[in-house]
Amino acid sequence: VQLQASGGGLAQTGGSLRLSCAASESILSVNNIGWYRQIPGKQQRDMVAIVNTGNATSYAPSVQGRFAIYRGNAENTVYLQMNSLKSEDTAVYYCNTWPGFAPWGQGTQVTVSS
Questions:
Q1: Residue 15: its pLDDT value, please?
Q2: Which of 5, 65, 95, 111 gets the highest tally of CB atoms within 10 A of its CB?
Q3: Among candidates 96, 67, 101, 91, which has minimal Cα distance to 81?
Q4: How confident is the model over 14-36, as pLDDT tens digits?
Q5: Phi first, then psi: what are they for 105, rounded to 5°?
Q6: How far apart are the C-alpha atoms of 81 and 70, rounded to whole Å?
Q7: Helix runs in the chain, H state only
Q8: Of the candidates 37, 36, 29, which has an alpha carbon nearest to the alpha carbon of residue 50?
Q9: Cα dihedral angle (47, 27, 67, 87), rounded to 10 degrees?
Q10: CA-based radius of gyration for the chain
């Protein structure tokens, strides 16, 4: 079982990107899902946002008010809408269950520059 993140790329400061997390519906619908990021030079992945099975959400303080996590209507995708991007959002972004017990996928690179 693996959750696959996509949608990263290059954005300017203040810009927006939307990331997608794809997996089987059976995985996404019955688990809390989290977005994580790994900043260059750090080994650990930090939680960015979580959506639980009841669609309640929580966010890291650094992205609160700028990022939004939500489940797609098709129920086999979870999205991370990222607005007002900052240079410190540059990282490789991953999705996984919360807590992260599935194998980690490749992630998707997000680079924010001015």
A1: 98
A2: 95
A3: 67
A4: 999 999 999 877 888 889 999 99
A5: -80, -170
A6: 8
A7: 25-28
A8: 36
A9: 60
A10: 13
